[in-house]
Each structure stands twice: as C-alpha cells, then as structure tokens.
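User: I'm curious whether this sequence folds into something compact or stays loose and floppy. Could you predict its structure so I can see for myself?
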Amino acid sequence: MKNIFTPVLALLLWAGTVSAQVPVMSSYPSASAVLFLDFDGHTVSGTSWNMTGPIFCAPSGLDTAQIRTVFNRVAEDYRPFNINITNDSAKYLAAPVDKRMRVILTPTYQWYGNAGGVAFVTSFIWGDDTPCFVFTSLLNYNVKNIAEAAAHEAGHTLGLYHQASYDANCVKTTDYNPGTGTGEIGWAPIMGVGYYRNLTLWNDGPNSFGCTNYQSDLSVITTNNGFGFRTDDFANTFAGATQVSFSNNLFTINGVVEQSTDGDLFRFTQPSYGRFQLNAIPYNVGTGNAGSNLDMQVTLYNNAQTQISVYNPGTLLSSLVDTLLAAGTYYIRVEGKGNIYAPNYASLGSYALEGSYAVAVPLPLRQLTLQGQLNGDRHQFSWIIDADEAVTSQVLEVSTDGRQFAPVSQSANADRSYNYKPWASGSLQYRLNVVFDNGRQYYSNIVTLRNNSEGGRPKIIGNLTESSQITITSPGAFDYQVHDFNGRVLVRGMLANGINTVNIPGMRNGMYLVRFHKDGQQWTERIVRQ
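Assistant: Here's the prediction. I'll summarize afterward.
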C-alpha cells in the first residue's frame, strides 16, 4: 500500500507567477543520490499520481533571489547526508533511478486540493520517477514556508512519517509536532511543522502511529535509501587535529558537523601574547541565523589538551571567543549542541570560523584565574591574582548568552572569594573584571555554572551602582518604576525577558526603590548609588 502524506494545511492563497532565470546550484556534486528541486514546471505522467491523466505543473512563481533562499535552506537541512540537493535536471537524470527524487515546486494545486504539499512515503527508492509536490501559491510564496515544506515532503519520500505530539496520557494532540520556544533558538522538527520556528531539525520522537512509536529521522534516512552520512571532513581527535595558520593575523575555516558524535578539532599557534577572537557562525540565510541547523559550541584547549573554556551562548546559535592568550599552541573543538528548546539529537550542519590575533601589551600580572563551584543553591567563587601592580577594582560579572556581561558584585580589593544565590535559571557564565593601579583592565577566564532555580520575578544584578544605570534580569514582561526616597518617580517602563539595562535620569548618590508589578503582584528592591 502506498501512503500519501501532506504537511500542514495551506496558508494564504495569492495568485500570480514570477518568471526567473534560475541559477544552477548543487550542494554536494560528488554524491550519487540526488534530491532535485524543480522550480521550472513539469508535466507528470505515468506515475502513481496520474489516475486521471497527466498533471501540468506551472513554474514555481519565485524570483531568482527566492529560489536561491529556498535552495540554500533545503540544502542545509540535508547537509549531513551523502546526497546532492540540486536544481540541475541533468544531475537528476544522471543519478540512479532508485536513488533520486524530484520535488516539484509549483502553484498548480487544484488537481490535489488545499495542502502545502504531498508525497508518497518511501517513494525515493521506488525507481519509477514518482515525484513529490510543494504548492507555492498555497504557501503564499513565502520562502521560509516553501523551504520547510520541501524538506518535509522530501523526508516523506525517504521513509519518514510525521513527528507528532502527545499529552501525558499518551493522547495525540496533533499529527504535527509544533516544537517550542521563541527567537533564534526556537525549535521544531522538520517532520512536524516548522513554519513558526527559526531552528528546524531532524528529530527522534514519537510519530503519528503512537506515543511509544519513536522515529529516529537520521537512522531512517541513512539506512533505507542507499546513502548514509557524508564523510567526516575534519578529525575529532587531538592527534588528528587540523593545523590552521594565521595569514596577516587572520584565519578562516569552513566545515560541517555531520553527526552528533562529530567534534571537529583544529590546532593553531599564537606567536606572542595577544588578544584572540573567534567568530563561530553556523550557515545561515539572514539575520538571526535564519535557516541554520547547527547550534554551535566551541571549546578552547591549551597545548596540554586541558580545557580552558567552553563557549556556547544560551540564546544564540553562533558562538564568540574573545580572550587574551600567551604565546603557544592551542586547540579548538567545534560541535553541535542542543539548547533549552532543541534536543541534542540533530544539531548538525555547516559552519564558518573566523579567527584573529592582535598583539597586546604584556599583562602586569602573572596569573588571573577564576574558579567556581555549586554549593547547594548558591554559586561559590574564588580567584587568584598574582601581579606586581595593585588592584584598584575587581568586579565579578555574569552573562546568560556569553556576549553581554553585567556586574554581580564589586568586591573589596583584597577579597579573593564571593558567593551568592543566583538570580536566573539555566547556564550562567562568569568572569572577573580587574583594574590595576596603572589603569589597565583585564578579564579572567570564564567559568560556567548551572542554576536550576526558576527565578520567578525580576532581580537587580548588584544593588550598588556608581553610575545612573542598573541591570535587571527578568523571567518575562514586568512593569517597573524607580522612585527616590521622597516618592518621586524617576523612570518607569516594561522589562523584557532576559537582561535589561535601565538608565535612571536625575540620579544622585543615595538610596532608591525599584518596584516591579505584574498581575496584581508587587515586589520592591533597594539600590544605592555611590
């Protein structure tokens, strides 16, 4: 029996077509298996679809820029596999008949009905050129939705059923798992409904035939269709680490994380003490890493292969390393990870690394090391400063995303420890910001600790300030007001989820009250401007 599966019901209908000079593109030309994205229109005959005669499919109605975007999104979805995504009909016709699929992107839907697309399950290996369809007009010519539908329908032809959702009682709530979360890391399965999330991935979850009927998308794709994963491009061992060299103090690397066990390792030598920066960027088609399939984690090691730090911003798919290193050899490991929304299962895809080195004036200290550990519900820190210069300021700073740091506490210059109960859940990254009496400022290594508290209301990060600015972390949208002790409101507004910086005009030295409001509840905290 041949099973037909369609994605989510169609969106808005918009009539019209746009002619385009389609560029020829291939994602992996050496692969024998081919997924052909046909934007040019096609007449379908002699297949299982043709119960009432030929089907005359019009061209997609997309312009050149839209075609490129759809192609690049679908190519990235299939990047880990040994398959060529192409819009070149010659590549399709040259492929083995049982290792190819034509995906027809067309506004011609009337022969079938209202759906984003349609496919026969397992038809990739039938060997009779039965295509699958994506109906561009019923998807309102939206390139994000068209690309999601194309990857989804092609997935059906490779043997995949829908990734469904069930409640705690094993009752199906929807055939199409909608995923969860918002923003850059909001996630959904490709075989669910990915229209409304930025990060769409293959998944290992219950399919539409039952809550215990788990479907490992990666396993089905790579074991049932005559192709597997791509060959690993970079070794994942220290001994096999790829040597990269600075040219004009820069280097660039392009790679692919093909499997969840893959961790590409690179080795570089920094010629002298200086600032090392690394931008680790997953492949994307636009702002917010749109179209990415890889949530990147970068780990930095010294020459003894001892871990220096892990870089994985919680709310971003990209990562940033910005640190001071002594002369010597270092290692970088690149891998895909999950996040608070997405599982670790299929964070796979291509990436680019951009490394740079800048000479810095030697440190006026021999050691600046921060150590941290969990102590019940508190985060406990100690640090070592070995320097000839005197410390004039030391501030422990925290970040939820590895980019924006805010002060936790300014310790006395002689202090070398601190502990507190953190204000937010999840992984928090800490560093020590130290200023010496010669005016130079330095940062310690970064320490990552996890806090499992819920953090159900806003918190001020540090109740002492030397400026007219405070930093507040909030678990959601809360109204706030800042009052002086005479009751005068200096500033009011609404907090967003995450770290918020609030500027307070007219603030002088003294004590102030910060009031938070939400759903009839009110909380008050005090701050002191020194």
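Summary: The first helix runs from residue 64 to 77. The helical segments are 64-77, 89-94, 143-157, 217-223.
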